[in-house]
Amino acid sequence: MQVKDNQKNNSFNFSNPRAVAVGFIVLIIAGWILEGLLHTFIFNNNTLIFNLFQLDSHEFWMRISIIILLSFFLIYTYKINIKLKKTELSKFIKEEEFTLLTNSTSDVIWTTDLDGNFKYVNSSVMKLRGYTPQEILHQNLFDTFTINSIKNVDRILLSANFNNNSKEYIPIGIFELEQFCKDNTCVWTETSINMIHSNDGKPIGIMGISRNITERKKDEEKIQKLLEEIMVSRDLLEEETRKVNDLNEILTEKNDKLKELNSTKDKFFSIIAHDLRNPIGSFRSMTKALADNFTEFTEEERLTFLSSMKTASELIYDLLENLLVWAQSQKGTLNFFPIILDLNEIINNKLLLFRQSSQIKFIQIESNIGNGKIVKADSNMLNTILRNIINNAIKFTPEGGKISISAYPDSGDFITVSIKDTGVGIADKYIDKIFRIDSNVSTEGTNREKGTGLGLIICKEFIEKHGGRIWLESLQNIGTTVFFTLPRAKFD
Predict the structure, then answer these.
(1) Rounded Cα–Cα distance for residues 396 and 477 (Å)
(2) 20 to 30 A Cα–Cα from 156, which one of 17, 214, 293, 471?
(3) 206: β partners
């Protein structure tokens, strides 16, 4: 209100005719007096300036013209003075309005010259940093920031655009800066910085708006700390999870081994309770009957008894042999000494042991191994492997059948052996179970020969001990082929 009153008192109201007339009269009288003074001092005429009407007509009108010109000069000078006062007053009003506007905001608004000397700052700086605006005007912008923030300010000013002539304020960006306070503490501010340019595009200063974000920074630090704790907790959780998974794998492995041991135990007891008991019981019954009634049997009947007893004893022997080997294998006490062996010689010697059992069923066995098939294997294990596979082939091949044995080198460091029969074959559902200890796959032979299913399991363990593998192909009522590999002997 005071500003508006000053404007009213210092202005000249040209819209009032009375005021205009009075003003002109005053100005004419002033011009009259001024003209008289000039005439007196310039022309050294001591005539009083008020004796105007005593002059002749020529001098009278000349002096009247001078008075009028001086009056217009005074009027023009007065109007210029009024205009200048209006301009100054308008500038003062704008500055007052700018001050009132900037002081009404909680943000700190400031300007500096290009050297960083403060030129203006609003009163909000007291709440932000504790200084009065007058104290700030004696400071330099670069002295108000911490060391890390000064580096950012230097980078900010270097990145400013000094060649843009189209705008007065060239925005640079918004930055987070740390400033010193009067009480020697620090405060974080979010500062928007702009370059001030003159009308011709030259940079003349810096303008900024700063806002207190200390609490926000504290919250961000808390969040960052919480995130770090979460990351550490996550890493610990992942480590614990990994340990739990490792323990689960160990437990699963131990559980599988335990299942295998239980299956082994069950298999062992099954063999003892059933597979071993039956042939021994049969052998015992036949020997008792033969001993008690020897004289009552005919020669032919006695030969039949002896033949059955021989078959039972062979079955018992094979079963005990497998049980002994298997027990040693499970205990880990079975010796393993691979040596260089001629595969053709080993197989031919083994076939001599099966000549009688194969001739009883009129089964033809042929070996197509050939010379040069030299392997490196444990002799006892290889004999056990061949005995079990050939024995199974004879057992499940009907009378008049055929068994073929061959061997060939593969593309690697092994020799593949195949034993093919024309027997009853194996159903598909049993093929995957036949090498597993936990699956009781045992069937009678074509002449009702008994079996335990243990032979092929032992073969698998022994072959894998050599680094080889075993598999089979079978079609029911057509036959089965068993394949296994052994390492070839290497000669340096």
Answers:
(1) 10
(2) 214
(3) 112, 195
Cβ count within 10 A of residue 277 = 11
Could you tell me which CATH number the domain at 106-212 has? 3.30.450.20
- List the domain boundaries for the chain: 2-102, 106-212, 335-487
Q: Identify which of 216, 206, 212, 152 has the alpha carbon closest to the alpha carbon of residue 181.
A: 212
Question: Residues near 400 by Cβ (< 8 Å), separated by ≥ 6?
Answer: 361, 362, 363
Q: Could you identify the residue written with the tokens 């209006």?
A: 86
More confident residue, 379 or 326: 379
pLDDT band at 445 (very low <50, low <70, confident <90, very high): low
Other beta carbons within 10 Å of 379: 12
**What CA–CA distance (Å, rounded) separates 321 from 85?**
130
Pull the structure tokens for residue 323. 């049980």
Tell me what pLDDT residue 56 has.
Answer: 53
Q: What is the pLDDT of residues 371-387, one digit of tens each?
A: 889 999 998 889 889 98
Asked whether the whole model's pTM tops 0.85, one would answer no
DSSP E strand stretches across 360-400: 364-368, 374-378
Residue 470 CA to residue 385 CA, distance in Å, equals: 11
Residues in the chain: 492
| Residues in contact with 123: Cβ distance below 8 Å, sequence separation at least 6, in sequence order | 103, 133
Q: Which two tokens stand for residue 63?
A: 């002096």
pLDDT above 70 (res 175): yes
Number of H helices, E strands in the chain: 14, 12
Alpha carbons 111 and 330: distance in angstroms, whole number: 91
List all residues 6 or more positions away from 33 whose beta carbon is below 8 Å from its beta carbon: 49
- Supply 27's token pair: 């100005």
Q: How high is the mean pLDDT of the chain?
A: 77
Least confident of 49-63, 156-170, 255-269: 156-170
- Fold (CATH) for 335-487: Heat Shock Protein 90 (3.30.565)
Q: Are 116 and 142 in contact (CB under 8 A)?
A: yes
Which residue would you say has higher pLDDT here, 243 or 57?
Answer: 243
